[in-house]
Amino acid sequence: YCTQVENGEIKTKHGLNISPATGRSLRGFQRIFNEYQGVYSDKRLNELAEQKKTPRERITLDFEDIDKDFATTFKNYLIDEGYKINTVGKIIKLLKYFMNKSLKDDKHTNMKFKDDKYSVEPEEAFSISLTPDEIQKLYEYDLSHNKRMETARDKFIVLCETALRVSDYDKIDVSLRTERGKQLIDLYQTKTKNRVLIPVSQRMKEILKKYNNQLPRIHEVYVNKFIKTVAFNCGMTEVLRWEITKYGKRVSKSAKKWELISCHTGRRAAATNMYNAKIPVKLIMALTGHKTEAQLMTYIKIDPVTLAVKAAEHEYFTGSPLRVAN
Fold first, then answer.
1. Which bin fits 180, alpha (ψ -120 to 50), beta or left (φ > 0)?
2. Which residues lie below 8 Å from residue 52, measured CB to CB, with a gap of 6+?
3. What 3-state DSSP class applies to 14?
4. Strand, helix or coil at 192?
5. For the chain, what is the largest distance between any 2 Cα atoms, rounded to a whole number of angstroms?
6. CB atoms within 10 A of CB 47
7. In the chain, where does DSSP find H-type helix?
8. Which residues contact 6 (CB under 8 A, 6 or more apart)?
9. Mean pLDDT, residues 136-161
10. Chain centre distance of CA 1
11. Cβ distance 169 to 155 under 8 Å?
12. Contact at 8 Å (CB) between 157 and 227?
């Protein structure tokens, strides 16, 4: 099945080739599932030897072995291997994907993978956003001495202005249109196939002018690398702390803000800043392409301190003391 996906023999419901990223995810699942059965690549065996770990004993699983007990055993294996809870959820989802596909192809009649045990309660992934002031600092930082870094920074700014995914970015220059005197980005999103129309902001107009009505072009790998350097130089050195579940335990993590900035931060920043600017949620959804408000809200990153200060300003905390009940 993985080979057919990679060769373009299997299409999506829209008749398109399955994306290379999805193909890599399927291959990743195949590797994990093989290792659970004690089947390893030579490279992986060498890694285990260096780590002084014993390979698992060889077993062979068939479709009928994917029962309720297997759900618990497999999830425990993934947790013991150090996969984060959300990653465990993605792996289980891929297992169900293969079971569903093979069920439709009449390779088995096992329906036990549809049990509730084949679900993982996700935990909120830690991610950051940037305020309008922080974005402005990045935008104004003088990079005239380093054109590649300047190009990477400018591409990041466009992501902050448009809430686009990186996969949609390269479509923009052929998708600009003017309606009622307003310049808009008109495109179909690569991931969802949704059509979105996004107004071109003043800052983006300046970038378009700077690049002769084109957008800055540089691979996202370099954007992720260079934008961290620019953020560091702009003083984004606040230490952020959060917790994750790993090896079945809560583990504390910390990093400086500049270390956590990537291309996808731009999309979150755009959604968050529009929300804070009190743009109606339905309008934001039209710009980001989210189908539900719940999906959008996973992108809205409000700083806990900001929330606490807003709460402190509420009349509940600022008004007259609460009466004590007799």
1. left
2. none
3. coil
4. coil
5. 76
6. 12
7. 2-6, 20-36, 42-50, 68-80, 85-104, 132-140, 147-162, 166-169, 202-210, 220-233, 263-276, 281-288, 293-297, 304-313, 315-318
8. 23
9. 95
10. 26
11. yes
12. no
Per-residue pLDDT tens digits for 98-114? 999 999 999 999 999 99
Token representation of residue 277: 């600017």
* pLDDT tens per residue, range 268-307: 999 999 998 888 989 888 888 888 888 888 888 776 677 6
How far is the first Cα of the chain from the last one, in angstroms, to the nearest whole number? 72
Cβ contact 282:292 at 8 Å: no
How many C-beta atoms surround the C-beta of residue 126 within 10 A? 14
* 3-class SS of residue 256: strand
CB 54 within 8 A of CB 48: yes
The single residue listed with the structure tokens 């920074």 is: 153
The string of pLDDT tens digits covering residues 254-267 is: 999 999 999 999 99
Is 146's pLDDT higher than 80? yes
What is the torsional sign of CA 165, 142, 129, 125? positive
The rounded distance, in Å, linking the Cα atoms of 188 and 126 is 28
Length, in residues, of the chain: 326
- Give me the DSSP letters along 53-93: -PPPPP----GGG-SHHHHHHHHHHHHHTT--HHHHHHHHH
Tell me how crowded residue 163 is: count the other CB atoms within 10 A of its CB.
25
DSSP label at residue 123: -
Write phi, then psi, for 182 (nearest 5 degrees). Answer: -110, 130
